[in-house]
Amino acid sequence: MHLEDNLKRALARQSAPDGFAERVMNAVNAVSAEARPSPGASRHPLPEGEGRGIRRGWRAIAAGLVLTAVAGGWAAEKAIERREGERAREEVLVALHIASAKVRVAQQHVHEIGSH
Amino acid sequence: MNALTLAEAETPLERARSGDHDAFAELVERHEGMVFSIALHFFDDRARAEEIAQDVFLQLYRSMGEIETDAHLLFWLRQVTSRRCIDGVRRARMRLVSFEDIGEVPAKTHAADPLLDRKLQKLIAGLPDHQRIIVTLRYQEDLDPSEICGIVGMPVNTVKSHLHRALVALRKKLGDH
């Protein structure tokens, strides 16, 4: 039999697994429930459950702010440490530069003494 | 025409666009076989194919507002499924079955020659990504290269070239000259 006919048969559509549409609809319902706002949240006094939800929201925001502050402090401390490190490195380089200049002068003296 | 008759006259697509979940479920049931099969023939892995198909329908739910007609829906589903297959394999290189790995696996479909079908499915799974999706769209969906090029976003001659190379490779491996 011709290859193309065999391919058509081998690649025939197959049924999706049992319960596939149901699983998709469960996911769709979960997505649409997430997207749906609480009914009447701003117009009526909050029922107990919703009030708890909003308090939880504020707590989450406060926790976020605290975390941001802590992270900011940590980052600033790291920046200071880095700057101090760079300054110390520069000082070491200057010291090395001075030391090498002194060694060069000493070598010159040694040569001069040797040539006399 | 009263309101009830108007609602009845609306297609599932129109009802799904206006947020009717039952109508959306109807669309899923109508097209699940196509979407699942494209992913299955691409990955040769049922679990992976189901995962891709679910993602495609979730994306469809979020994009229902963009879908204009039933033909557009079909095109959209084929395009998004193909892209997800290619992207999925790029993100995490799947274990591709080499031509040498082809064994005699029991068939699961009702076919005239189940062994040959399984062998072909394995060979297709070993093709390069673009050849694989093009072969799937050509022979599963019975689409011409001129239709496939719109779905995979390639010039028609590139699609023809991929198809030709895929058939040559498959013939070579099958010894069907």
Features:
heterodimer; A: 116 residues; mainly alpha; 3 helices; elongated; B: 177 residues
What is the secondary structure topology, with strand pairs?
The complex is a heterodimer of chains A (116) and B (177).
Chain A: H1 3-10, H2 20-35, H3 48-115
Chain B: H1 3-9, H2 12-17, H3 21-43, H4 46-62, H5 70-91, H6 114-125, H7 129-139, H8 145-152, H9 156-174
Helix pairs in contact in B: 3-4, 3-5, 4-5, 5-7, 7-9, 8-9
Explain this structure:
- Chain A has 116 residues and is an all-alpha fold.
- Chain A has three helices and no strands.
- Helix content of chain A is 79%, strand content 0%.
- The radius of gyration of chain A is 38 Å and the shape is elongated.
- Chain B contains nine helices and no strands.
- Chain B has helices at residues 3-9, 12-17, 21-43, 46-62, 70-91, 114-125, 129-139, 145-152, 156-174.
- In chain B, helix 4 crosses helix 5.
- The longest helix of chain B is centred in the first third of the chain and has 23 residues, at 21-43.
- Chain B is globular, with a radius of gyration of 18 Å.
- The chains are: A mainly alpha (116), B mainly alpha (177).
Helical content of chain B (DSSP H or I, runs of 4+) = over 70%
Point out poorly predicted stretches of chain B. 97-111
Terminal Cα span of chain B: 63 Å
* Class from secondary-structure proportions of chain B: mainly alpha
Largest binding interface between chains: A-B, 24 and 42 residues
What is the number of helices of chain A? 3
Helix content percent band of chain A? over 70%
What characterizes the major β-sheet of chain A?
none
Low-pLDDT stretches of chain A are 40-48
What global shape of chain A is seen?
elongated
**What is the number of helices of chain B?**
9
Radius of gyration of chain A: 38 Å
The major sheet of chain B is characterized as: none
